Amino acid sequence: MREIATLTVGWLENSVRSVIAAGLLSRFQSVLITSIDSTTNLCDSTIGKRITALNAVTSCLGAGIVVRGHAIRRIAKSLDLFNGFDEVWCFDRVPELPKPADLWIVAPLNIENGPAPARLTSWMATTDCKLALGDGVGLNFATPCGEIAIQVDHLASR
Length: 158
What we know:
This protein is an alpha+beta fold and 158 residues long. It has one domain (2-157). Helices cover 25% and strands 27% of the residues. It contains 5 helices and 8 strands, in the order ββαβαββαβαββα. The chain has helices at 16-21, 46-54, 72-79, 120-127, 146-154; strands at 2-4, 7-12, 30-35, 58-61, 64-68, 87-91, 129-136, 138-143. It has an 8-stranded antiparallel beta sheet, sandwiched between helices. The longest helix has 9 residues, at 46-54. The two termini are 17 Å apart.
């Protein structure tokens, strides 16, 4: 892990799916899903429609889909989602600003050793995003909260 501006960022040999299975995302009111298996235009995709059909409490935000944090584990398991090249953003309230199209934290980026995306810190601060996860080849994470960083980092030892 390392600090960049107001965020703790890191890279683990893990996945978004593992973090969801561990129940960590259930603590958030809302999760903005911006990539599932490399699909980024989720609102218009087949998988987006499957998520909406399974869980009525969803909404589109930009190209992403917002779901309740307490439902994410059930959605992931029921639809066998988050198998790599996934990206999610977690909030204590419903987000209002879509993720910029030029911001991503999925592979091949290694946020711990490489440069952080230019808009990551500012967008997370503006939207009050509490946790960002992106996987593909390992798991990138970013959070302004030290406690959350420790919880995500501990998943690597499981």
